[in-house]
Each structure stands twice: as structure tokens, then as C-alpha cells.
Specification:
Layout: H1 9-21, H2 24-31, H3 35-49, E1 54-57, E2 60-63, H4 65-89, E3 95-100, H5 102-107, H6 113-119, E4 124-129, E5 143-148, E6 157-168, H7 171-174, E7 187-191, H8 198-202, E8 213-218, H9 221-229, E9 235-238, H10 239-247, E10 259-269, H11 277-300
Parallel strand pairs: 3-4, 3-5, 7-8
Antiparallel strand pairs: 1-2, 5-10, 6-9, 6-10
Helix pairs in contact: 1-2, 1-3, 1-4, 2-3
């Protein structure tokens, strides 16, 4: 194993992440380093190994034949090392790292996490907001709260709830809505120009989403919710996004009908993290808190 002295583990990890993610930018984000630092690390790694591992193209980095051959082996090896570290640290339940979609974190979880902290003062919860699906087997993340339409996501995860959508708007805009057809006269707030959820909701009334009036477009659903609060139009929201704004009266839902999108919230863990007492406590608390929210959402529908 003397040849391992020629290159640090951090270099091998950088090679593996770059090969797996396909870009320096995504690899740098996963590793928590700057783009420049990762580029220098790659250059030094290639020099230490005596050969290029990636071909620089206008479309990004393309693995060489050698790199393409070793990349899966590197992923397995680093995954094994990560599992070993997890085994060693498994007895430490003082830190709980949760990977979660930024919108779920900012609009639902952050307003309730203090309850878990009060009940479990010895557990330090670290929230990592990201839209990427983190591989729990090769990172130090304990829990992934994910939204997916793919049923296979549930093989190593526990279902939390189904995602349901419904139109929301400001109280002032709602004064002009008496029937679903009135929605066709109002600007529709879009996330990245997508009419997410409108088709499945409108079909209940025999209306096509092609008849909707385009409104302002924003980069994420959280901004769309803010736009709805400001009276800029109607937005198709979901319960974990809009529930608190509804309760505070910042937006209203003109109709009781809520439509399932086919997406599901999952509580995902690795084999190792599932055994941690802190993870089990967080899972129990999260399920209980969501059940309270669901009962409240259903009661609002009468």
C-alpha cells in the first residue's frame, strides 16, 4: 500500500466526485470547496498520478478511458470508507445532519424545528438545504427528506405524505373568484414557466390549463408564494409550502378541492444512520408534527 503515500485521500475523493457529478461546479458544491480550489486539486492529482484523468471540453470535463474505468471502483471504495467512519461514529448521537429541499426547510420545517430542539436539547440538528438527492451511503448526512414521484424511492425510505396542490391568492384577488372558470381571467404565477399542478387540479372541473392567462414567472416556488401574497395573481401551491401563510391570512384558498400530484414526501436514511437513536427520535417527531399539520389541513377543508 506504499503507493497510497503518493496521493492524498482528498485527491482521490475529488476525482471520484468530479467523475460522478460530471462538472467541477457540482463537485465543488458537494465537497464544500471553491471552484478554483477544486481545479487546483485536480491538476495536482493528475500530476501526482502522472496522467490526465479528464479531457477539458467546451461542455465540461469528460473522463479519459482510464478514469471511466476506475471511477466506479473509486465510488465503491470511498463508500466503504464512509461506512467505516459511520460505524465508528455511530455511537455519537449528538449531531444530526438533515438534507432537505430548501422550500420545505424554509416554509415548514424551520417554523417547527424548535419543538424538536426543546424536547431533545442534547441533539444538535444541522439542516442542509439542497435540491440535489444526496447519496446517504457516501456522505455524513443522516437523513434525507425528499419529494419524488418515483415509487422506487420508497425502497429504503418511509413515506411521510402525498403532495396535494390547490390554487391560492391574496384575499383581495379572491374577491374576484366565485367559480373555477374565474381563474381563467386572472394572471397565473409560474415557477420557471411551468404550470405545475394546474392540469391535475383543473381536470376535476373539465377545464384545460391551456386556457390560463400567463402571469409573472419566478425562479422558485417560495418566490411564487410571496408574489401571491402581494396580489400578483394566482399560484398553484401545496400544503407544506402554503399552510402557514394560509393560517396567518396572508393568502387564501378559494376552493376546497385539493389534487394529488403523484409526488410523495419520503424520510430516507442509510443502513447505518437508521440505527442512530437521534435519527429515530427525529423521525418520530417529524411524523407526529406532520400528522398534526395534516389534521389541521383537513379540518380547514370542512
Amino acid at each position: 500500500m506504499q503507493n497510497l503515500n503518493a496521493i492524498p485521500l482528498s485527491a482521490l475523493r475529488a476525482i471520484e466526485v468530479i467523475a460522478r457529478t460530471g462538472t467541477l461546479a457540482r463537485a465543488a458544491e458537494e465537497l464544500g470547496v471553491t471552484l478554483g480550489a477544486l481545479s487546483q486539486r485536480l491538476t495536482k492529482s493528475e500530476a501526482a498520478l502522472g496522467r490526465p484523468l479528464f479531457i477539458r471540453t467546451p461542455y465540461g470535463l469528460k473522463p479519459t478511458e482510464v478514469c471511466a474505468d476506475i471511477a466506479p471502483r473509486l465510488t465503491r471504495a470511498i463508500g466503504d470508507l464512509s461506512s467505516i467512519v459511520s460505524d465508528i461514529r455511530a455511537v455519537d448521537n449528538s449531531v444530526l445532519t438533515v438534507s432537505v429541499a430548501p422550500i420545505f426547510a424554509s416554509r415548514w420545517l424551520i417554523w417547527r424545528i424548535h419543538k424538536f430542539n426543546e424536547q431533545n436539547p442534547t441533539i444538535k440538528v444541522r439542516i442542509e438545504p439542497t435540491s440535489d438527492v444526496v447519496d446517504l451511503n457516501i456522505t455524513e448526512v443522516d437523513v434525507g427528506i425528499r419529494v419524488s414521484e418515483d415509487p422506487s424511492m420508497g425502497r429504503n425510505a418511509v413515506k411521510l405524505l402525498d403532495q396535494r396542490v390547490f390554487p391560492i391568492c391574496s384575499p383581495e384577488v379572491a374577491q374576484n373568484i366565485n367559480s373555477p372558470t374565474d381563474l381563467l381571467k386572472l394572471p397565473v404565477i409560474c415557477e420557471n414557466e411551468k404550470l405545475y399542478g394546474w392540469g391535475s387540479w383543473l381536470v376535476e372541473y373539465g377545464i384545460s390549463d391551456q386556457s390560463l392567462q400567463p402571469g409573472p414567472t419566478y425562479a422558485d416556488a417560495s418566490l411564487c408564494l410571496d408574489a401571491a401574497m402581494m396580489g400578483q395573481g394566482v399560484f398553484m401551491a401545496w400544503e407544506t409550502l402554503a399552510c402557514d401563510a394560509l393560517e396567518r391570512g396572508q393568502v387564501v384558498s378559494p376552493f376546497q378541492q385539493r389534487s394529488c400530484t403523484g409526488a410523495t414526501y419520503w424520510f430516507a436514511t442509510s443502513r447505518i444512520s437508521a440505527e442512530k437513536s437521534s435519527v429515530r427520535k427525529f423521525k418520530s417527531w417529524l411524523q407526529s408534527e406532520l400528522e398534526c399539520s395534516i389534521r389541521h389541513w383537513r379540518s380547514d377543508q370542512g
